[in-house]
User: What shape does this take?
Amino acid sequence: MMSSESAARTVCVFTPTYERAYILPVLYKSLVAQTSHDFVWMIVDDGSTDGTEELVAGWIAENRVDIDYVKTANGGKQRAVNAGVARCRNPLFFVVDSDDWLLPGAIEHVLAVWATIAGDDRYAGIVALRGTDDHTPMGTWMPAGVTEVKMWDLLEKYRFKGDTSLIHRTDVLRDHPYEVAPGETFVSEASVFFLLDEEYWMRTDNTILTICHYLPDGLTRNFAANAKRNPIGYWKHKRYCAQRSTTLKGVVRETLLYLVGCRLAGQRGAIAMAPHKVVAAACYLPALVARHTVFR
Assistant: This one.
């Protein structure tokens, strides 16, 4: 378990990592430079063999950042998140990927925003921005005049594009772990975020906290390959998205991808299980084409 001093921190900056010793020092330096150190950096090393353990041991010896390091067998990012949430004893859980880094005032800003909603059980947390630099978001800014939002509405209703910095209440995440299928290592992060919508709101914050440049070995740039390797999680998530969508375009898109996932998984009865069976029947042939082109 983490030390009592670590548990007393407000924020857990959580980083799941696998074979990222070459880039992880950038994040470490950004944490050292934070204007507030009311955080613990929890690293779940998902079975790296590239010297990550020795690298982190050196940082722990430096004692410039409070670090809680755990090494596990390789099980994928979402299992690492589940393990981190279960281990965490801090009120807030801020996932910062190993190829990202924080702007110097990020933690201080999170604490200031959190102070405005702490104790309000309507909120699951804060949704802020990731950017390519401190004044350029990875896509759009938050919708004007919107101070609280459901994550699904942020994407579909407000047409938000890009990526977010998400800071959640740890107790909420503990009650909503990722469901990763046996034999698979990945499921969409949104599978949990959308479920939280059913009970909670997110406090919007139109501020860039995290700097990100997607790497060739990252999950985002390899979505089709991830779907092929993890088809059960993929089709279940897309079925939920088809059910949740409120626009015809969204229903068609998510139903088509759901059918692709079923084909990848060898899942029978896809049309019968679809939330919109008529749409699924109409999308069946296009899904076959997509299966052998985009997901070949």
Summary: The chain has 13 helices and ten strands. The first helix runs from residue 4 to 7. The beta strands are 11-17, 39-45, 67-71, 92-95, 100-102, 123-133, 136-137, 148-149, 164-169, 201-212.
